[in-house]
Amino acid sequence: MTDDVWSMVHLERAALIDDLAHLDDEQWGKPSLCEGWTVHDVAAHLVDTARTTRLGFVAGLIRAWFDFDRQNARGVERERGTSPTLKRLRQVASRRSTPPAPLDSRLVEEVVHGEDIRRPLGSPTPTRRSP
Length: 131
Prior knowledge:
By secondary structure, the protein is mainly alpha-helical. Helix content is about 65%, strand content about 0%. It contains seven helices and no strands. It has helices at about 1-20, 25-30, 40-50, 55-65, 70-80, 85-90, 105-120. Helix 1 packs parallel to helix 7 (about 105-120) and helix 3 packs antiparallel against helix 7 (about 105-120). The longest helix is centred in the first third of the chain and has 19 residues, at about 1-20. The protein is globular.
């Protein structure tokens, strides 16, 4: 089951990377379906969560004084960085690290946030390949 979930997560990440590959600056700056976040912010959040380990999550939550929204905002700010977010998204596409949450939440995160990005851009939901 674990390998099945991770293979679906990796397929979702690859599909989103394909969809983001041709965005211009205006599209990256477009509001997403996540209140207060642009397309770029959501992509940075996905990079951050892909890099997050269980221990890193707990440490980040402590540094944010147990404020989950603050922790998320810090992760987005960190991952927006100066290098292209798409490049960093490609770098984490096959990672298997996860915050302390059920493994299925990794897949939900990728699917839901993929739609948070695609819908405002008018992009169709990709045809998903089977794992």
